[in-house]
Amino acid sequence: MRKLISVVHTSLDGFVAGENGDFDKLVQSPENLDFICSLTDKADALVAGRVSFEMLDSYWPTAHETPGVSDSAIRYSHWYNSAEKIVLSNTLREKKDDNVTIISEKIEDTFIRIKNKKGKDILLFGSPSVCQALMNLNLIEECWIIIYPVVLGKGIALFNSKERAVKLKCLGSTQFTMGEIAIHYKFEY
């Protein structure tokens, strides 16, 4: 069975973005994208909510054509273009291409079917509401939380479920040159 792994960037106080969805305070080290590419090497699909998908899809399909872009950005752009894209959305209806699956109902059944298909891992990028929904269905096996050395004070929270506590087991961590720390957890439902 394929593993579903959440990958999320957050401030020290647990916000994935500012109040308006801005990320400008989460400054990445040069090797941060190299690290993300090490995760995409083991994956062939991505999951996102509509907002995160539209943000990813507005840049990554053509990023490899941008003059002066890093080797990691080229690598990630090519991976993004070949990856199966699974979008959880109640408002997005039209698929851009055949490599996009939009899910708006029967989430648990659909994900179990997707996870049972032959393939590599599935990465969930951003999308705190999608992460919360899939976590509440016990569908996420692992997560990488990349914590930035900044306190936003307010914004879009990574976790805000009051349904139940979920225990995590730390599997390791990696520190980057600008102070971010990527912590690898396994969910213990």
Automatic annotation (TrEMBL):
GO terms for biological process: riboflavin biosynthetic process. Gene3D superfamilies: Dihydrofolate Reductase, subunit A (3.40.430.10). Pfam families: RibD_C. Residues 2-177 form the Bacterial bifunctional deaminase-reductase C-terminal domain. It comes from the Bacteria. One of its GO terms (molecular function) is 5-amino-6-(5-phosphoribosylamino)uracil reductase activity. PANTHER family: 2,5-DIAMINO-6-RIBOSYLAMINO-4(3H)-PYRIMIDINONE 5'-PHOSPHATE REDUCTASE, DIHYDROFOLATE REDUCTASE FAMILY PROTEIN (AFU_ORTHOLOGUE AFUA_8G06820). This is Dihydrofolate reductase family protein.
